[in-house]
Each structure stands twice: as structure tokens, then as C-alpha cells.
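Standup notes, structure subgroup. Blocker cleared on the acetoacetyl-coenzyme A input:
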Amino acid sequence: MDYLLTEEQLMLKEMVAKFSKEEIGPVARENQEKGIFPEEIVKKAGELGLMGIAYPPEYEGAGMDFVSYMIAVEEISRYCASTGVIVSAHSSLGLDPIYRFGTEEQKKKYLPDLCSGRKIGCFGLTEPGSGSDAGAAKSTAKLVGDKWVLNGTKNFTTNGEEAGTAVVFAQTEPGKKTRGLSAFIVEKGTPGFKVGKHENKLGITCSSTTELIFEDCAIPKDNLLGELNKGFKVAMVTLDGGRLGIGAQALGIARASIEDAIKYAKEREQFDQPIANFQAIQWMIADMWTEYEAAWLLNYRASLMKDKGLPYSKEAAMAKLKASEVASFCANKCIQIHGGYGYSKEFDAERYLRDAKITEIYEGTSEIMRLVISSNLLK
Ligand code: CAA
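Run returned:
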């Protein structure tokens, strides 16, 4: 589908594909097995402009569009879905709300470090008791003198360990749920803010997923992000974009599954011939690629709508829903084509399946995606 891309987007795709193949691919399996955060790779991604692709050069961004961002996250995730989500959660969730809702002072203060990758960003919305029902968050922020004082615990925060800046949501009018939530920028090192438990996960093991704990954490009054009590909209608008980042991550996993399956099917011989000669295998590959292209087109369409400033919540939800389910489908088939070897850690197929599953869950489960799509259709 390269014919849909501009020359600039194609050049970026080629550059990120090369970087991912040469620098991410060779260490991906070992890093995943040991749960190592790919610090050097993330640093290099920053130097290549990949930590702030869709943001203006005045904030040290690469000045490209959202379609370019989608392409880059897919290419990275083709080799390592953990690195894909590190880049995506940083950019879509940690950086984007500051760009979209921040004051000029906040943008000048925080964006250059984030766009360049000198600092990593994260997003604290989910809490132990509020996942899909994001408005039910219990963390609070009270204005005491000229400081906001935050209390509460966030969990399942991607990049929680490494992030220098967190966008955090807390109730400023407890009891009002979605209408009492506000967004704040909290810097690592602020007294009363610490990283808590690290999740021990099925997949994406190179990226950290942690609690963020706030105990009488006082931040400057000016660190309110967006309007008071309008934080739920900040979260929802941010997640619309984030869902396309996860869609792109899922596309990368799907493509890795298909490319590995094709390679193996051509090499593996049974009954005196490559298994690629058998129709059972051919049909699986045909189904995988057809599903992948359908998912790619949905992601491309929603990314293009975002670039054009059109409403795209429904389209982003459709894109993530499709891409995440396609990633799991393709990873499953990839294992099937590899047979017993697919179940072994000697090959990457089992990693793809473990990584694919989370794309159906984070930044809105498939059930929430269906809810967003149907509520848009029925309203
Ligand atoms: N854009 C702008 N505004 C939006 C919006 C959107 N996409 N979606 C909703 N809103 C607005 C509504 O218009 C409404 O506005 P008013 O108050 O003015 O009427 C307000 O927000 C409340 O909307 P709802 O009544 O629809 O809210 P709800 O409580 O029923 O929840 C929901 C809706 C879609 C289920 C939402 O809660 C949701 O998306 N849940 C999933 C949360 C999620 O994705 N969490 C992932 C967290 S990040 C993560 O996974 C960790 C990580 O680090 C990767």
C-alpha cells in the first residue's frame, strides 16, 4: 500500500525499517527474555527524531504528520513490540496532551525534552478500581495555597519507571466522576511521587508497566493541564490518538507474524516438499495478509482523518479493534504454521502471540472499542 504514502513518508518508512532491522531486531528476543529496557535504542530513536515525529521543530519535533508516526510505530513493532509501545505511549500519551492542551509556557518547558527523547513521558489514568470506567478514578488533587496536592495510586502505567514527566489525572471535584477530573503534569523527583509495583507480564516485557504513587505530592498550581474539571476530555482526546499508536503496534506484530510464517513455510519440508506447497498453508497466509491489509487501511484512514483535523474517535476505535484482533489472529496462525517449533522459544512466533494479546486490552479493551463505535453509530 506504499502507493498511498507521500515521498517523505516513504523515506521515513525506509529509514525506520533499516534502523529496526539492524539495531532492534538482533537484540529483541534476548531483551524480551530478560526484560531489559532498550535504553540505547530509545536514545538512538530520539536522535533520529522518532520520539517526537508529529510535533513542530520549534519544540524539537520532526515536523511530520500523524500518518508518518503510524508508519514508524509499525516498523519498530515489526521487530520489537515492546519498543513500539515505549515510543507510542511516550508520544501519544505522555507528550501529545501537553502539546494539545498545554499553555505556551508548559509547551516550551516540557516539549523539547520529550520530542527529542531526552526525557520519556507516561500517562497515569488507570487505577486499581478504575480501568474501563476511567471516570471513576479516586485519586484527588486539592489546591492548598499555590500548590496542587495529589494523593492516590495509578497502575498499569507504560514507561512508569523511566518517565521523567507524567500526565496524571485526579479528581478536583470528587463525586462528579467524569466532570470532576482534571489533568496535571508531574515531574519525576517531586517529593511525594514514587514509582510502585512493577507488573510481571505475559508479553511486551522490555517496557515497564508500573504503579505511580502520590502521597501528599505538591506540584505548582501552573501544572494543571487544560481546564479545571475538564481532564476527562483531555484523557479521551489523548486516547483517540493513542489507540492509533496501538493499532500501529498491532500492525507491526501482524506483519512480523506473516513474514516469519512465509519464510518458514518456504524452508520447512514435509512429505518431500516445502509446506508452502500445501493449500492448507497457502490459505492461512492469504487470510493473514488480507486481514492485515484491511487493518492497515483502517489505521491509515483514521490517521489521515486526524491529520486533516476531522473527528476520528469512531475511526480510531475501529482501527485499534481490527488491528489488535488481526495481530492475535496472525500470531496464532504463525505458530500453527511453525508447528511444534512455533511453541518453542527458539522462534519468535510465541513472542508475537504474547505481545499481540495486550493490544486487545490497553488504551481501551476491544469491548470498549465496540462501545465507542456503537455509541457513535446510535447517537
Ligand atoms: N473526545 C472528546 N470528548 C469525549 C470523548 C472523546 N473521544 N469521549 C467522551 N467524551 C466526552 C463526552 O462527550 C462527555 O462529555 P460531557 O460531560 O460534556 O457530556 C464526557 O466525555 C463523558 O463521556 P461519557 O459519558 O461517554 O463517559 P463514560 O464514563 O460513559 O466513559 C468510555 C466512556 C468510552 C467508556 C471511557 O471511559 C473510556 O474510553 N474508557 C476506557 C479507558 C481507557 O482506554 N483506558 C486506558 C488507559 S491508558 C493505558 O492503557 C495504560 C498505558 O500506559 C498504555
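Discussed briefly. The CA atoms of residues 240 and 313 lie 6 Å apart.
Next: hand off to the docking folks.
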